[in-house]
UniProtKB/TrEMBL annotation:
Residues 102-116 have a biased composition (Low complexity). Residues 12-26 have a biased composition (Basic and acidic residues). InterPro entries: DUF1685. Residues 1-26, 102-122 are annotated as: Disordered. This is Uncharacterized protein. It comes from Brassica campestris.
């Protein structure tokens, strides 16, 4: 008998090595998965400049937000984080206008805001940034309130 007809012993199983593209894809997936778990952590209520630009863009595109409406959807304020700050500032501005135009009494002029701009633990840089953002929202709210309906 020749050696060619003899049965070959079974080969050991070997692990199939991934292509480099698969390795990159797996690494990208792991990074995305890790980022997603970080995104699930509730973010703070602080507003960024990008949030303000997003709100400004929505209003300039014609989306109307009624700051005094109790029907303001929570999902909408979660989607547009600057909307809460805008509504609070707009309410205060409109309340101020109504008080000054109707000669309100001294006791009525004391207002209590449920929205605070600064936190006690904020450092100087954060305070400065938050005050700038607040000023931008105030200016934007005043411009919106003065527009003819």
């Amino acid at each position: 008998m020749s050696r060619h007809n003899a049965p070959q012993p079974p080969r050991d199983l070997t692990k199939q090595h991934s292509w480099p593209h698969d390795v990159n894809r797996n690494e990208a997936w792991l990074r995305k998965k890790k980022k997603r778990s970080v995104d699930l952590i509730p973010r703070s209520k602080s507003v960024t400049n990008d949030d303000l630009e997003e709100l400004k863009g929505c209003i300039e595109l014609g989306f109307g937000f009624e700051p005094d409406s109790p029907d303001l959807n929570q999902r909408l304020t979660d989607t547009i984080p600057a909307l809460d700050l805008y509504c609070a500032v707009h309410r205060q501005y409109c309340n101020h206008l109504s008080r000054t135009s109707s000669f309100a009494s001294e006791t009525d002029s004391i207002s209590s805001s449920t929205t605070t701009v600064l936190d006690k633990g904020d450092d100087r840089k954060t305070v400065k940034q938050k005050l700038k953002q607040w000023a931008r929202v105030v200016a934007f709210s005043v411009r919106q309130a003065r527009k003819p309906s």
